[in-house]
Each structure stands twice: as C-alpha cells, then as structure tokens.
Specification:
The protein has ten helices and eight strands. α2 runs antiparallel to α3 and α4 packs across α6. The chain is globular and about 65 Å long.
C-alpha cells in the first residue's frame, strides 16, 4: 500500500501480522498490537511481510488532529505498541461503532472519543519510549552480531554462550527492545541482503541463498516469498530493467 499527498491523517492498528513501513526516508518493522499515526501528505509505503494481516484503519482530518500528530511525533517515531486491553484500543472500537450514525449528539461524542483516543496514544507512546529508550548492551551486541554475521548459523545457545548471558532472558530482552524475535530479526536481515544481491548481481538463486546463510534453497525461496510476496526470480524481474 502506498499513499501520498492526501489531506488527512492515518491511524492504523495492526491486530495480527507484520510489515515494513517506509515513512519520512526511514524504514520500520511493524508487528502486531501496534498503532501507526501518519500524515498522509507525506509519502508512506507498507510492504507486507506475512500473508495474514488483521487490522483496523481510520482516516482523520482537522486542526485538532494535526496538533495531536505533532505531539505524537515529538520523538520521531511514528508508531506505538498497544495491547488489546489498552484504553486506546477500546476507544478506537467505540469510534468505529458510531461511524454509520450521523447526528449532532453523535458528532460530539465522536469528537470526545477522538480526543480521548489521541491523548491516550500520546501518553502510551511516551511511557513506552521512556522505558525502552535505553537499549541494554547485551541486546545491542546481539543486534550487531545478527546484522554483521548473518551468514553464520546462530542459535540462542550459541548467542548465550558468546554474550555470556542467560538465553531465556536474552530472547525476552531482545523481543522487548527490538519488537521482534532474534530469528525474525535475522531472517529480515538475510532477506534484505538477498534483495540487494538479486538487483545488483547476476548470482543464481542457489548462490544468493548460500550468500545469506541459507543452504536449503527451497526454504530460502519460501522465506523470500513470505517476506516479499514474490519469488526471488519475480523480484529480480520486477526490480531490474
């Protein structure tokens, strides 16, 4: 999905699924229980990384929305995580329940709900950002290992041994601060490298699979299609002249 030059703001709540967001020249991996708040005047692109995507979407407008958008984006991050029982989610559901109704009282109620929703989103995001702004050193080290040594075979046991850290705590902390599991993080890295190799080299699919640390070629093709909705050959044909 791609949007740009629209006079509105987008609220997008993902219940289930995962995708890559491109927004303001940055990319983010967005997972479940996450709310985006985007200005549709800016270019934005969502690339699904999984075939199943369960979401709720709303387009908003007006000066009040623009004001809350600026507050939401003070730290430069266009999303926050909201558990299903979060006040923001319950308020969002109430807003949707009134979307087919039209009267003065309903309009006032919608305005009140919208103010409550955006206020709760900002408070939730600020609380999460303050709590997670400091990434522990062991998580940073693990990210560097998976980013730079993606060809190697990694397990929680091997990473735990290398970092001298409890593997269960390591996996839990990584998920908390990075918002995806170590294996998903590694797969995304491998797929990103594979995409670059498909575009910039004449390597065969077998060679590219081996170059990113996946010796089972059918498994590589399966992972690639899951993350891009295209086979490696289709991706190469689509992105090269």
């Amino acid at each position: 999905m791609e949007l740009q030059n629209l006079d509105s703001f987008l609220l997008l709540y993902t219940k289930k699924g995962r995708y890559r967001l491109t927004y303001q020249d940055k990319q983010y991996i967005i997972g479940e229980h996450t709310i985006l708040f985007l200005d549709c005047a800016n270019y934005q692109k969502l690339d699904l990384l999984e075939q199943t995507w369960d979401f709720e979407i709303a387009f908003l407008n007006g000066q009040q929305t623009a004001y809350y958008y600026e507050l939401f984006h003070e730290n430069g991050i266009p999303f926050c995580t909201c558990t299903p029982n979060n006040n923001s989610i319950s308020t969002l559901h109430k807003l949707f329940s009134y979307e087919e109704q039209d009267s003065v009282s309903v309009e006032l109620l919608r305005s009140s709900l919208l103010t409550s929703l955006l206020t709760n989103l900002i408070l939730t995001k600020n609380a999460d950002f303050n709590q997670a702004s400091y990434i522990p050193n062991h998580v940073k080290q693990m990210m560097m290992i998976l980013q730079n040594r993606y060809v190697e075979k990694h397990t929680l046991d091997s990473l735990s041994l290398e970092l001298n850290y409890n593997k269960y705590k390591l996996a839990k902390d990584f998920k908390y601060y990075v918002h995806e599991s170590p294996i998903d993080y590694l797969i995304v890295r491998r797929m990103d490298v594979a995409k670059q190799l498909l575009i910039s080299t004449n390597k065969t699919i077998n060679e590219i699979s081996e170059s990113v640390g996946i010796t089972n070629v059918p498994h590589f093709i399966h992972l690639f299609k899951k993350h891009t909705m295209l086979t490696p050959l289709q991706y190469r044909e689509k992105n090269t002249l």
